[in-house]
Amino acid sequence: MKICLIVEGCYPYVVGGVSAWVQMLLRQMPEHQFLLVSIGAQRRQRGQFRYEIPANVTELREYFLDEPLGREPGASGRPLSAAARQALLDLVQGTAPDWPRLFEAFGGEQPRPVEEFLMSEDFLALARGLAETTGRNTPFKDLFWTLRSMLLPALELLRCPVPEADVYHAVATGYAGLLGAKFSYFAHKPLLLTEHGIYTREREEEILKADWVPGYFKPTWIGYFRALSQAAYRQARTIVSLFQGARELQIGLGADERKCRVIPNGIDISRFAAIPPLDPAPHPLHLGAVLRIVPIKDVKTMIYSFHRVKAARPDATLDLIGPYDEDPAYYQECRDLIRRLGCRDIRFVGRADVTDWLPKLDLLLLTSISEGQPFVLLEAMAARRPVVATNVGACREIIEGAEDGLGPAGWVVPVMSPAAIAQGILEISRTPATLRALAENGYRRVVRYYQDKDFLSAYRALYREAVQTQEVREPWQASALN
């Protein structure tokens, strides 16, 4: 089987949980061929791979949001139809656009040159239409340039040629889901969608906090990304999330509940079999976190929390295990914070094999403000290490279980709450016996629910069902496009 896997903002350029998931999928399915389509943020990432590409990846296509496609002739000079103009207006207003109209106009046999469109009367009419509706109270100049920056990457991606495959699999909504929907639409082949985090919610959180988006454009950007998600939700044959709470969010955002199913992440627990249990004798408290030093991991809250722990446990140490070169400015801010607090015994380890470090830890921390189903928690639990994590994504389900009777594997804390995080650390580390009991609960939960063999078996079945079942086209796909 030939599978076209479409990823955005992760593999093979960025180390992290989604990239690790992609690498596992590729390596553990040697019976299939994969054509990888990777959407990166900046063209300078081209060829800068952080992973060794497996042999069963027959082709890797790289596209970047800051790099236009070639300027080959398209439907130059031909005005958009009224229906296509309305579809664009619906997109930027955050309502339900007629995606087939846009697929055909910008991604069909004669794709419209995007730069030409953005200089055309059609685009000016679009800007005016928005100015007369949801943009009435915004400066027209700002609205005009915001629309350009909003539409340029999406419409450029629609020009990407359709690769031949038996099934298309997008590992997010957003731009990856848009491209997957376009490929599936023209190839008449099934699309599968997997969301690790809920892309629309993640973009909403970023936009609300972003300084570069004026307040009066925040609803426009949020609505735009919600509309993008509909392309993948509508076209997908199956929509996968990692836990039940995420499935409910997808349905709330417009996904058909009949398509939605849950497949948890899985890990190879044999990697951690040689790690000894925690030392039962009293000893200094060694904390650790496996993470990228980036804002979404909220490393500053972790530092503040450890500073509080250090006041009660002067013997405590904290190792931050993972790359710190992705966001140098944030890394420096973290170092400056440590210096201002005068907090000792925090070490930035850099990239490392987690199996070399977990034996040294008594407890693993995660203070992220957004997660899906973190591999680092599963790996710590497989190594018989308790965890303290913020209540994001599937963290509570992983740590406390879904009424499985196994008991907690650690402590769940509020986001951005150094006092609560420090309290959780101090509570569960009062005695080695408490740490060991929580660790055993976590180990039993991983063995029961989160093994890679189960995750891989579920995806093999999904791929098999997708190609064996006659694809039923949605009504919106069959609309007349003449």
UniProtKB/TrEMBL annotation:
Organism: Subdoligranulum variabile DSM 15176
EC numbers, comma separated: 2.4.-.-
InterPro entries according to UniProt: DUF3492 (IPR022622), PelF-like (IPR047691)
Enzyme class of the recorded protein, top EC level: transferase
Keywords, sorted A to Z: Glycosyltransferase, Transferase
Entry keyword annotation includes Transferase: yes
Gene3D superfamilies: Glycogen Phosphorylase B (3.40.50.2000)
Occurrences of domain DUF3492 (ranges): 1-257
MF annotations from Gene Ontology: glycosyltransferase activity
Positions in coiled-coil regions: none
Entry protein name: Glycosyltransferase, group 1 family protein
Keyword presence, Kinase: no
